[in-house]
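Technical annex B. To support the medicinal chemistry partners, we prepared a structural model of the target in complex with iron/sulfur cluster, based solely on the information shown next.
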Amino acid sequence: MYKFFIETVGCQMNQLDSELAVSGLTRAGLERVMDYAFADVIIFNTCSIRQHAEDKVYSAIGRLKQWKLQKPFGVIGVIGCMAQKDQGKIISRAPHVDLVLGPGQLDLLAETIYRLLETKSVGVSTQPEILVSLQRLKDDHSAVKESFRLFDPARKVESRKNRFQALVRIMFGCNKFCTYCIVPKVRGPEQSRSPVEILNEVRQLVDQGVKEITFIGQTVNSYKYFMPRGNIVTKIPIPLKDVGVVGGDDIIRLSDLLYMSSEINGLRRIKFVTNYPVGMGDDLLSAVRNLPNVSKYLHIPVQSGSDAVLKRMKRQYSVAEYKELIDKIYETIPDAAVTSDFIVGFCGETEDEFRETVELVRYCRFKNSFVFKYSERPDTRSAELYADDVDESTKKRRNNELLDVQEEICLELNRKFIGRKVEILVDGETKNYDDGKVQLSGRTSCDRIVVFDADNSDLIGQFIEIEINNASPFTLFGCR
Ligand code: SF4
């Protein structure tokens, strides 16, 4: 039996794609190993968001030259965004790579690897295969949709991080074309999956023991699917209460999906990421407020607190509009936890523009922020239009300052939980003590990390109540 090793970097889309790749390969008869030294096939699922992520992949592939000399019949594959973006460049930089396969071709992975392995095993040398097509990503009737329909739901339980949490892709691609981002070029335009297929997949996952699902999409709140609402009653195989879903126009939105999936018995928690600041409608906020099993956690990246920078980034909102959205969220869902992403040192960012970003972080009181230094990406509009003119030390200083401000806010917000009881889904073990006891961790509905001591790991996968007795900026501590 051939063995494969897979290394994944990047976002939750990539995490899900790797789960799908693992399922496809194991179904085809390959066995997964956790150490590449024992593998016949090594796959890198790559990310193109930052130069650093790409450099790491190129150097890891470079180090495999030796492995290839010892195992000439082995297969090295590169999948994910970098595969779509760089295509033949990967083979010219690393001629020992055998396969480059884009995100829209995942359903061809197992068959292609098998073909390469079988051919090589009889001593016939193979040419590298490059299977990337943006056209396929753009074509509604293509195998990408087919892959949604057949491939996503067919993933094996073992390919997931654990048995009680699962990612469910509800859409693919992005139409926003932010100037710094490569995603629309490598993942194609937005395509939403049918709600019937999504709900069937969720139900199937719940039947397998999943308690928490996360709907994922690059701009998940843009989810829209045309379907005459009369059809929903007959086509969606779950009992619907009178939740206001059936009626109105013929577009199914994310809020409708939340209402419908919240009816599935046994599904205790539903999350959705990542939101774009435009299109966070009242219907969506009401759904988050009204549905007890929808997580009160909203990740809405703003990227900058300066209108001038947002304009250069081609983000489609102003700072005032973003603040208005934040006010509306806290008004509608007072216990909401909002998180954001920031890029500091974007082309031409002045000290005053950066100060506006600091001010926005103080205003919004995010539960947490992910801060990145701008990294110029070839083939993006910003690389074409603007100079990457903020020096590295300034980027680093702004990055650290923003993180410090955010950390203060995190601590203030977390301290408010001391003395309160919270419900968490226990998701893992963080420490082993000498006496055999363990420290476990879990997350609240508002996505806060909670750690506590327990006698053993039996609570993993369960919802339990914890009384909080201490807090740090990023963790709550408690006991049962
Ligand atoms: S919204 Fe902007 S940053 Fe997000 S995936 Fe689309 S283009 Fe990239």
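Notes passed to the chemistry partners:
The domain at 421-479 is CATH 2.40.50 (OB fold (Dihydrolipoamide Acetyltransferase, E2P)).
The chain has three domains: 3-133, 143-415, 421-479.
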